[in-house]
Amino acid sequence: MSESIPITLASADSTPVDGMGCHSGKQVMLDAAKAAGKSETLDRYAKDYPKGPHDQPQSMCPAFGALRVGLRMRRTATVLSGSACCVYGLTFTSHFYGARRSVGYVPFNSESLVTGKLFEDIRESVHALADPAIHDAIVIINLCVPTASGVPLQLLPRDINGVRIIGIDVPGFGVPTHAEAKDVLAGAMLRYARTEVAAGPVQAPRGGRSGLPTVTLLGEVFPVDPVGIGMMLAPLGLAAGPVVPTREWRELYAALDGSVVAALHPFYTASIREFEAAGRPIVGSAPVGHDGTESWLQAIGSAANVAQGKIDAAKNQFLPAIRAALAAMPIKGRITLSGYEGSELLVARLLVESGADVRYVGTACPKTAWSSADQDWLQARGVHVQYRASLEQDLAALREFEPDLAIGTTPVVQAAKTARTPSLYFTNLISARPLMGPAGAGSLASVVNAAIANKARFDVMESFYSGVGEGFASGVWQESPRDRPEFREQYRRKLAKVTKASHVEEPI
């Protein structure tokens, strides 16, 4: 029987919970979370995911990343604890991106939050879900309000009926991007799996263990890429291991068993910490383009103690094919690129080697040691690399460099099209393609060249819609609308009075 641990709950007087939500402001919620006992977690996040010069990139709710990881795993249930509006939005987004299972939700109100009843409700829900015939693991994710209120998921049982219980805090005020939230859950699962490996024998992968030493692939990549990487590793006497985040719990054991970890996406700081604790060497960057593939094969082979002759043989087998594919599908045009997936620098390298004039790369993710090779390579070719890029910086690059094509997030694409510049949404149209090895060498050229060639169509559309109007006059009108700045000023004064009155009523 486990030792009982006393639970200290924040009182209603000390924690501003009633009505507190994302609208309360980051600093208010951050202070509340630290006062409620979450300092250690938040300090670790601040170290793992440094924010850099910008407070926080503008992207979707970070918790979506952790939710996505859980929903893609077999025999894993995912439960959210947060405000109803947040849970609705995250559930909607998860199904929009193809989730085929339910998302659990533990509702609460101010009373259940400050009295500790919410924690009891969460514990009751995981006990009800913990059926070993159905689940290997249950993931519980605290969103902003439960995290700010100190709901102690760490006090949940480690397992129930043999079902693993993983509780994590993923607040928007502590985890900058949804990409890094993937690492929060992946790292927590690797830590749990590592303790199981240390305790004794564990399950083999569904397809059995590889007869060759394996390379664990860290980062969500296009499904064809692991196959291509496996082909490039074969001459080295290596095999591609699991992709982390994994699709099944038992794959975590195989990932930890790899001889080398390839940090294809460089921001998985917590996961890398677990691999390093397991004694696994880490190799950054990825086999993209000619130069990237050459240096990556060398680094992987060296880390796995492969003879130089085998490394050279692998290079001789694949590099000519990559060079030929790049030459056969050239890209001509000036491009700016931005996104929040973590693969932005890799895509930029591939575009540059395809002949594109890439001027700017913005990524919402932070700079890490595992992306330094990509940064150095790009900067040596005159590309400006901006980590923790803000929307304002992405738009400034669009205005300054006047590209033939803008690749970016939704608002960047919208701004580019408004300026009659062809544009492509990074997440759905660029990152959802093979990038690695020979298969990735010519994968971007067709879509990029087709988009650049559409410039004339934007000119035609601008001419057709000329005079439609912008701002207050946007749309189609029978009579031209007249601006009423005096009305805006009147309502501005009214809102200022309301805001001032609300501050006067606040307790001192």
Walk me through this protein's architecture.
This protein is α/β, with parallel strands linked by helices. It has 22 helices and 14 strands. The protein has a five-stranded mixed sheet, sandwiched between helices. α4 links the parallel β1 and β2. The N terminus is likely disordered.
Features:
508 residues; alpha/beta; five-stranded parallel sheet; single chain; disordered N terminus
Would you kindly provide a brief summary of this structure?
By secondary structure, this protein is α/β, with parallel strands linked by helices. It is built from 22 helices and 14 strands. It has helices at 26-35, 39-48, 63-71, 84-96, 110-115, 117-129, 144-148, 178-199, 224-233, 250-256, 269-277, 289-303, 308-328, 344-353, 372-379, 391-401, 410-418, 426-430, 437-441, 445-452, 455-464, 485-505; strands spanning 76-81, 104-105, 137-142, 159-160, 163-169, 214-218, 239-244, 260-263, 282-283, 334-339, 357-363, 384-387, 405-408, 423-425.
Distance between the termini: 48 Å
Largest sheet data = 5 strands, mixed
What share of the residues lie within helices?
40-55%
Strand content: 5-15%
The value of Rg in angstroms is 25 Å
Let me know the number of strands: 14
Strand order of the largest sheet: 2-1-3-5-4
Averaged pLDDT: 89
Subunit arrangement of the protein: single chain
- The parts where pLDDT drops under 50 for at least 5 residues are 1-19
Helix/sheet category = alpha/beta
Shape: flat
Please work out how many helical segments DSSP would assign. Answer: 22
